Amino acid sequence: MFKKISRYLTIVKVVFKYNLLSLLYKDLGKTSRPAEMCSTASDAKKRSNAKKLRLAFEELGPTYIKFGQTLSKRPDMVPNSYIEELEKLQDNVKVLDFTKMRESFENECVCDGASGEQEHSPACYHCNDILEMFDEFNTTPIASASIGQVYRAVLNGKDVAVKISRPNLIDTINVDIDIIYDIKFLLIRMMGLGKNFNIDVFLREFEDMLHRELDYMVEAMNIKCFRENFKDFEDVLIPDVYLDHCRKNILVMDFMEGTQVKDIVDVDLETRSKYARLISSSYLQQVYIDGFYHADPHGGNIIVKDGTIAFIDFGAVGKIDGEMIRNMLNLFNAMYIKNTDVAANVFLKIGKLNRDDVDLHRFKWDMDDLISKQHYMAGEQQSDNYAKLAIKYNMSMPSEFSTLERALMLIESVCLDLNPDYSLMSEAKPMIAKAMKERYSIKRIAGNLQMEVDEYMEIFKNLPAGINDVIETIQGYRIERLRGKSDILGKYRLLDDFSKYIFLSVLVISSAYLVVRGETSLNLLGIGGFVGAVLMGIRSLLRS
């Protein structure tokens, strides 16, 4: 409790130091105003205030640095001037001396003592000095971030990067998260969040993301997944990880030689254009084929060398489920073929907005403008247009869409720096063709059909042993009542047939449910069941 009170006092001090209450209310509360409608003086004021917010977050430490970075990925919430400033939170984090960093990883023993006599593991940081476990270890970090620092070392003759989390982070972060929940009502008011924005969902997702990034074993698994996805790509490299030397607070992986994309100089335009195409095509592969993508692909997280590219720093990743992938691909395809109606309908579906809740004519007009910009304004940032459109119509976009859009904006920015004439649409055709081929491949259809069969069988298996018991009960009751009354046996047969119709009705409804739920004409089993049930019903009626 004392730690929380102390932290509150620190936050209040920083808030008043940078006058955050007034600047947030003035600027962030007006996110719906298009940037191009702001005067030069107003824009300059916003940039000045955005810098104050960044400095305040840096002073408050890791939780708020990550909070600012998360906000920078939400163009549907935060003005562009703030996004540009909050992106700088990736840099200029104070370096912590290695003697203090030791506290983070030397307290956990992984040695096996099951045999009664402890056997020391050569990969135990508690029982061995880290400087002796590696062939070489440079205690001066090559990178410093809010969560951890990165060192260069040599392990078994291989150059490796060793990422170590800052000590005692989890306690401070948990207190900060509690405080953010306490003041969420202020965040809603100060930031002028739309009525459709769910602050509780946003904060839960932020908390989950933060705890995942604190666990380097999660990042190790992310790297393994990316290596599997790109195992057949010779020009896209993913570092390997050394799991024996990895812990929750330490990560050991290959050191990727090369130049960060942001530092490329004195390279001819042809080579730069090749890198831009390779980066964008590999990223579209992550999004539309794998559904698992790097969520922070800025110029410092992409390495280039000798015609190849390498992604690094996999702490922040994004995942897209099957439905979102389909919607995103349909949106991308509709924009590519310039089909405004389809693009508008899919975008409304993603934003969970009914056609009746929006001026559809005006919305399609704006969507047509967006499509035109994508096709005819090469050399300019276009990915943030989706967020602008969502803000204009007060759409609450799902977090996975907003995170992906921000990642695509970073990729687009990287590619534009490499090639001023770059256009995302120029890479669309081959990726759309590949994604569509994957979607309708025999293997994918067979897999979907198998899942539908399993669901179909499960539904029928769980029909209340139900229906049979009810039928037998009704029959038994009627037999007792009708025994000896041969003059009404005809009625009994009619009632008996009626019980069959109950079963047929359930069959029709469940089959129709499968057809509708599948959302695809490929749901052959559901359709077959539906047709079969109808035919059985007609046959029974005719026999009656």
Q: How would you concisely characterize the structure shown here?
A:
The chain is of the alpha+beta class. It has helices at about 1-15, 20-25, 40-60, 60-70, 80-85, 100, 130-135, 170-180, 185-190, 200-215, 215-230, 270-290, 320-335, 340-350, 360-375, 385-390, 400-420, 430-440, 440-460, 465-480, 490-520, 525-544; strands spanning about 135, 145, 150-155, 160-165, 235, 250-255, 260, 290-295, 300-305, 310, 315-320.
Give the beta-strand count. Answer: 11
User: Which percent bin holds the helix content?
Assistant: 55-70%
What is the number of helices?
22
Look at the helices and sheets and give the structural class: alpha+beta
Terminal residue distance: 77 Å
Radius of gyration: 30 Å
What would the average pLDDT be, to the nearest integer?
A: 78
> Any idea what the shape is?
globular
Q: What is the percentage of strand-forming residues?
A: 5-15%
Question: Can you tell me about this structure?
Answer:
The structure is a single chain. The protein has 544 residues and is of the alpha+beta class. The chain folds into 3 domains: 2-91 and 172-211, no CATH class; 257-439, no CATH class; 444-543, no CATH class. It has helices spanning 2-17, 20-27, 40-60, 62-71, 80-86, 98-101, 130-133, 169-182, 184-191, 199-214, 216-229, 269-290, 322-336, 340-350, 360-376, 385-392, 399-418, 428-439, 442-461, 465-482, 489-518, 524-543; strands at 136-137, 143-144, 148-155, 158-165, 236-237, 250-254, 259-260, 292-294, 302-305, 308-311, 317-319. The strands form 3 sheets. Strands 1, 2, 3, 4 and 6 form a 5-stranded antiparallel beta sheet that branches. Helix 2 (20-27) crosses helix 3 and helix 20 (465-482) packs antiparallel against helix 21. Residues 31-35 and 513-526 have low confidence and may be disordered.
